[in-house]
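ok trying this again, last paste got cut off
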Amino acid sequence: MDTDALLEAVREGDIRLHELEAHADADTATAVRRRLLAAETGADLETIGAYAFDAAAAEPNIENALGAAQVPMGVVGPIDVDGGAVEGEPRLPLATTEGALVASVNRGCAAIRAGGGATARVLKNEMTRAPVFRVDDVAEAGETAAWIRENVALLAEAAESTTSHGELREVTPYVVGDNVFARFGYDTKDAMGMNMATIATEAACERVVEATPAELVALSGNLCSDKKPAAINSVEGRGRTVAADVVLPEETVEGYFGTTPAAIAEANTRKNLVGSAKAGSLGFNAHAANTVAAAFLATGQDMAQVVEGANAITTADVRSGGDLYASLTIASLEVGTVGGGTNLPTQSEALDVVGVGGGGDPPGSNADALAEVIATAALAGELSLLGALASNHLASAHEELGR
């Protein structure tokens, strides 16, 4: 059927909007949807339809495809970092609509380079899924929790039978009355791993139900906790727990930020630590999620997981001799270099810019490297914003850049 015939079939109700791919190729189906929506709303959808990739490439990532949302993309770096997985001095694409963000992160990257480079390490890699079970009383809850603790190897056998890559690292039970939660933690290698963890956990839950009085209520009981602010992720981590730090000489701080190490340390304490504590924040940082979100958009990560990416603590103090020590620790940075949005053409190219496209050798090393690069760039962004605040240049910088 040509586009006119398909359009008429949708209008007549013979074909539903989401069924178009069953009657035409992906590009034709998206064109029909644009024509229908333009006629209904009067909107001009020419730019939405001006995407550069084959629409079929996006079929695993979207339903009722209409076109593409195009977000401006810039680049920061080189990022001078001694990482456990990252090699060389990569650049990092950032996609954002916030003017001055790329310039700010780039200023921080330049200061880090001038200071001799940063250090970054992935401290933990564990994607979680936490089902909730129903029991009759706390006696059964205790029995179920004890069985889970004693049979992690059996649960690992069931979970790992569903994947050739994921490894179950631990299972921790939690009891609340007649509820039993089991927080499964997986090494998902180069995948962000949420789907992998979900499928594996379903298989493991069957063993729990067979061997205990528990009945499965929901495969996700929110103790994971995915795409929501949660203290457990701040404390225990989720995905990659990654830290980056740097020591900047006093003259570097003054030259790049127009202020002193002492002023930046004080701004960090009063703003990021005391202010965040008073606000009851889970993130004790200046704007780490800004860099995380821009990197997620550029490299095809799950954007909703920026929520967990905000679980970050920035520290700053003056070392003997007057140098500035600064660090950023992100407790739950959920990133991957395979699967999901990383397969889309634009995002795949951005990962290639970083040098981490596809699976790593050894497995997991590419996702570790991406986490280290993002954490170091976010640290650069923290330094730049703290410097702007300490020197009272924040408003003038935005004004100068016309934002």
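PB: full thing came through this time. The radius of gyration is 24 Å.
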